[in-house]
Amino acid sequence: MLSRVRWVPRERLDSLARRYVQPTDVVLDVGPGIRPQALVRARAHICLDAHRPYLDRVRDRADGGRFVLLHGAWRVAMAMLPDRSVDSVIALDVIEHFTPEDGERFLAEAARVARRQIVLFTPIGFYPQSHTSGEPDRWGLDGGEWQSHRSGWTPDNFGSDWRVLERRPSNHAAVLAG
Fold this sequence. Notes:
Layout: E1 5-9, H1 10-20, E2 26-30, E3 44-49, H2 52-61, E4 67-71, H3 74-79, E5 86-92, H4 100-113, E6 114-123, E7 162-168, E8 172-177
């Protein structure tokens, strides 16, 4: 386990993660909220989110026609994608919002649709966060119900083919698969 885990200073995590993430033409960005991922600039950037106001905010700030916005549950939308239909599946601060069982299902679907890589960013272990439905989220929108954490993930939850970068002292890790 320790040979595939690399601890990095907080200020170096983003730049180091960018070195490991492969360039991509088509990215499926699951749960982007109001900020689509910026690790790679893909020609086609598919943003899939269950909360329409987040996608509306992305649409209002989108730069050109490279964004495709999909509103719906990941389970339904990803099931419609053919095998190996996107280069990369990126889910930043998303998997902890799923139950452990749904998280495992999500990883299986991501592996099915990704041609090249899956990139995750998640707290290490369970990090409590809850919101009441109808309560404003951190962006002042009504997406509070989508912000509760339902699971915790550690490097042990991922197979030996995953590369894990962790940062301290914060409780977050970038978990990358090749």
